[in-house]
Specification:
By secondary structure, this protein is α/β, with parallel strands linked by helices. The chain folds into two domains: 3-104, Enolase-like, N-terminal domain (Enolase-like, domain 1), CATH 3.30.390.10; 117-378, Alpha-Beta Barrel (TIM Barrel). The chain has 13 helices and 22 strands. The chain has helices at residues 40-55, 63-72, 80-101, 105-108, 128-141, 193-211, 227-236, 256-263, 281-285, 301-313, 329-341, 355-360, 386-391, and strands spanning 3-11, 17-24, 29-33, 117-125, 145-150, 168-169, 174-175, 181-182, 188-191, 216-220, 244-246, 268-270, 291-292, 318-319, 348-349, 361-363, 366-368, 371-373, 382-384, 397-398, 401-404, 409-410. Strands 4, 5, 10, 11, 12, 13, 14, 15, 17 and 18 form a ten-stranded mixed beta sheet that branches. Helix 8 (256-263) links the parallel strand 11 and strand 12. Helix 1 packs across helix 3 (80-101), helix 3 (80-101) crosses helix 10 and helix 7 runs parallel beside helix 8 (256-263). It binds D-mannonic acid and magnesium ion. Magnesium ion (MG) binds at residues 220, 222, 246-247, 272. D-mannonic acid (CS2) is lined by residues 37, 179, 220, 222, 272, 322, 324, 326, 349, 399.
Length: 412
Amino acid sequence: MLIASADVIVTSPGRNFVTLKLTTSDGVVGWGDATLNGRELSVASYLRDHLAPLLLGRDAHRIEDTWQYLYRGGYWRRGPVTMAAIAAVDTALWDIKAKVAGLPLYQLLGGASRERCLVYGHASGKDLPELFDSVRAHLAEGFRAVRIQTGVPGLDSVYGVASSEAAAVGDGTRYDYEPARRSPRPTEESWDTRAYLRHVPSVFEAVRNEFGPEVALLHDAHHRLTPVQAARLGRSLEPYDLFWLEDVTPAENQEALRLVRQHTTTPLAIGEVFNTVWDYQTLIREQLIDYVRSPVTHAGGITGVRRILDYAGMYQVKSGMHGPTDVSPIGLSAAVHLGLAVHNFGIQEYMVHSERTGEVFGTTLDFSGGGLRPSEEPGLGVHVDEELAARYEYEPAYLPTNRLLDGTLHDW
Ligand code: CS2
Ligand code: MG
């Protein structure tokens, strides 16, 4: 069974997505997600101009050899663009193999290790009343874990909080929060770490008082703190028993987490911007984190992320795969199939795509009991409306940049 065609689809139903469609000589189609928020065209070109010609005529069943061929054969290794492109090829080949086997993908990965994958949603609000409404809406929808993000007094807009009611969806308690705004240049936000550190503990105290001790609460510091500030935040949140505190400090310097770990028992999640196991080597080996965040879409596909999770499992580190709306429903479905099968599953991010996105990318995931489960349909269980996809042209969109109040550029 050979790869007969490799088509790259860039579509923008509400936000930009990059999708790879592989079709075999027998007519079997496999889908892969290669969406890299704000750099979509780089991955589309990597796939279309450099990988697609190499795939034609290859045996579609040789997934591992193709992964190694694209990883080692490209000479230039690692990085978000390369590993997103390889991820799309890998995911599409696994989709094909499972379809040919007549099995849902998770069955080829060892079968189910649990009934469903616990998920967390994005509760947010510029103030406590708005945040509480959002938490209530998520709990009413059946979420048992929610991420808590709010505004910070004195700052106009903050990561993770829909900046305007225009982003409100449905009854206004859910926001289609898309950080990559459509514009030829990134928007700019401002940041005040001291105001943030003063404010966040009071938010979690209020949420715990309002919603009790049971609901799993998560928070994303989004790479903005120094190690000692991260240590202070982790310690200040210990009374509120977080499920995890995410991206507390930029972790290219993996050793920075040693200082944080010494000062707090708040569980730590890192790695949505990491794309190979090498990015985690110290973090995992020294147990400096509790969850790895790389999604199938950004870390070399099923093959790449399963390798990371196997290494993490040796050190009791679990999965916490990134699942924002800028990972497509194809990437989410692949993550849920992998998450159902691996032993060291932790939690799956489930930001919930917009209806428009769902019209282009149909999935067969079931959300109930606070978790997601794939269907028994062979393969990934995803369906792409190519005709509808073609109607949504790419629009330039960039993630914001961020500056401290004195104008210094800071992590967004
Ligand atoms: C965030 C992401 O979901 C998360 O944890 O860090 O929403 C992130 O901001 C976006 O994926 C960036 O494109
Ligand atoms: Mg994050």
